[in-house]
Amino acid sequence: MLIAGFPAGAFQTNCYVVAPAAGEECVVVDPGQNAVGDLDDLLREHRLKPVAVLVTHGHVDHMWSVAPVCGARDVPAWIHPEDRELLSDPGRGLSLSTRQQLFGGMTFTEPDDVRELADGEVLRLAGLELTVDHTPGHTRGSVTFRLPAAEEIPDVMFSGDLLFAGSIGRTDLPGGDYPTILRSLAAKCLPLPEETVVLPGHGPQTTIGHERATNPYLAEAKKAAGAGPAEVRHDGGPGRGL
Hints:
This protein has 242 residues and is α/β, with parallel strands linked by helices. The chain has helices at residues 36-46, 60-63, 66-73, 96-103, 178-188, 208-214, 216-227; strands at residues 2-8, 13-19, 25-29, 49-54, 77-79, 114-116, 122-125, 128-134, 143-147, 156-160, 163-164, 167-168, 197-200, 206-207. Helices cover 25% and strands 26% of the residues.
């Protein structure tokens, strides 16, 4: 298994490529702002051929380069239907002031081929099997992608902005909701094996076991799942990304 990535753009959004091995087909996860050049370098380095772009959610820092990457390689983009409109109008997922600051006169368009993700779906792409989990709360259409363990590599989850090392995604933007993200954490993260590697949308990798033991939001999610609605106040997240 080959998994490689780099932080893209001003938001330092982690863009990943995933393949069975070097020299084979791959998928691209979350090509963000100004990701095209670094992505092309990574693909050449490992002699990879993309067959799809996977989007964990529609915030612009994760989908900024989706259309150019798909267009240059003639490959489809996969996104949850609840976030699909953000591909062509990412300002819907932001505050008014942020929209004005980021975009000015910029426009975005959907790739020619957009395919919609469903909870529990298994994508068989590039010789990989990726399980899709719908994890709303950061946005309505947030998803994670999970790879099963293979040889010396444990289970892997591409968590987008659901779960970070020590924190979670913000919930104060349009489509965000704190009780909902707690339910997603409880349903989709807490049951995973301790050794599951978490590759987040921002910041360093971690493991489910480490986050279960140290992340206060996972502790709150566990409490909320067992004792009804959470009675906490959320400050909008860790301040990484959008």
